[in-house]
C-alpha cells in the first residue's frame, strides 16, 4: 500500500478546528487525538486498539511525525487507511494541517480516525485539532513526576492511559503520586492501566472509545 507523505502547513485559523469537527460530524466520524512522549507507546497502543475495535468500527489513522513514515507503514500493513503528516520540525499538529490532510482518507468509509500527535508533553496539549476525544499516554519508564511537570497535558484530556503497566515491577514508579496529581488537575477523568504488549487493559480503553464514537455516530 502506497503511503502519502504530506507536510504540515503552518497557517493558523482559530476557527479551523471547529470546521474540522463539523466536517467529521457530517460523516459521523469520531476523531481521537493521541498524545504522549516519544517512546511512550502511542503507535503500539493504536495498533492494539485497532485490533480490539476493528470488528465494530471502520478505522483510519493520521500519523504525525517530524519526519519519516515508519509508523504509517506499520499501520498500513494492518490493512488500515493511513496517511503520514510530517511537521518538518514543528512540535505539534495544527487543525489547519488536519483539514488539509483529511481528504486523503476515505471519509465515507470510516467511523473512527486516530491521530498520533507529535511526541512531547507540551505543545500538542495547546492545540485543538477538531477532535472529539483526547487520550494522553504516560508510560511507566517515563517516571511518576510528569503530571506535576506538564499539568496542561493531563488537565486538557478526556482520559489518561498508563502504558507499559507490565513493567511496574522493574521501575520505581509511585502510582499513587500520579493518581493524586491527575485527580487534582482533572477530577473525575478516567485512568486506564494498559499494556500494549500483553493486551491487558486494552479492551476497557476500547470500550471507552466505543462509547464516545457511538454518540458521534448516532
Structural overview:
The structure is a single chain. With 218 residues, this protein is an alpha/beta fold. The chain has a single domain (5-217), classed as Rossmann fold (3-Layer(aba) Sandwich). It contains 8 helices and 8 strands; from the N terminus they run βαβαβαβαββααβαβα. The protein has an 8-stranded parallel β-sheet with strand order 1-4-3-5-2-6-7-8, with helices on both faces. α1 (16-26) packs parallel to α4. It is globular and about 45 Å long. It starts with a strand and ends with a helix. The model has no long low-confidence stretch (mean pLDDT 92).
The end-to-end distance, rounded to whole angstroms, is 32 Å
Q: Report the uncertain regions.
A: none
Q: Regarding quaternary structure, how should these chains be classified?
A: single chain
Mean pLDDT: 92
Would you tell me which CATH topology applies? Rossmann fold
CATH level 1 name: Alpha Beta
CATH architecture: 3-Layer(aba) Sandwich
- The sequence of SSEs as H and E is EHEHEHEHEEHHEHEH
Q: What percent of residues are in strands?
A: 15-25%
Provide the spatial order of strands within the biggest beta sheet.
Answer: 1-4-3-5-2-6-7-8
Keywords:
218 residues, 8 strands, globular, single chain
Task: Write a brief caption for the model.
By secondary structure, this protein is of the alpha/beta class.
Amino acid at each position: 500500500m502506497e503511503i502519502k507523505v504530506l507536510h504540515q502547513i503552518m497557517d493558523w485559523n482559530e476557527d479551523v478546528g471547529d470546521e474540522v469537527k463539523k466536517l467529521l460530524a457530517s460523516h459521523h466520524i469520531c476523531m481521537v487525538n493521541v498524545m504522549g512522549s516519544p517512546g511512550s507507546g502511542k503507535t503500539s497502543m493504536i495498533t492494539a486498539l485497532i485490533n480490539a475495535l476493528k470488528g465494530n468500527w471502520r478505522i483510519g489513522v493520521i500519523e504525525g511525525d517530524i519526519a519519516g513514515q515508519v509508523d504509517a507503514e506499520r499501520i498500513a500493513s494492518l490493512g488500515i487507511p493511513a496517511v503520514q503528516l510530517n511537521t518538518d520540525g514543528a512540535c505539534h499538529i495544527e487543525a489547519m494541517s488536519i483539514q488539509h490532510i483529511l481528504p486523503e482518507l476515505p471519509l465515507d468509509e470510516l467511523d473512527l480516525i486516530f491521530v498520533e500527535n507529535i511526541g512531547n508533553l507540551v505543545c500538542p496539549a495547546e492545540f485543538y485539532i477538531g477532535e472529539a476525544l483526547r487520550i494522553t499516554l504516560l508510560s511507566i519508564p517515563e517516571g511518576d513526576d510528569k503530571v506535576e511537570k506538564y499539568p496542561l497535558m493531563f488537565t486538557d484530556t478526556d482520559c489518561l492511559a498508563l502504558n507499559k503497566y507490565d513493567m511496574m515491577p522493574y521501575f520505581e514508579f509511585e502510582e499513587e503520586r500520579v493518581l493524586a496529581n491527575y485527580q487534582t488537575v482533572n477530577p473525575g477523568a478516567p485512568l486506564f492501566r494498559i499494556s500494549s504488549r500483553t493486551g491487558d487493559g486494552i479492551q476497557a480503553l476500547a470500550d471507552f472509545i466505543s462509547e464516545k464514537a457511538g454518540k458521534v455516530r448516532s
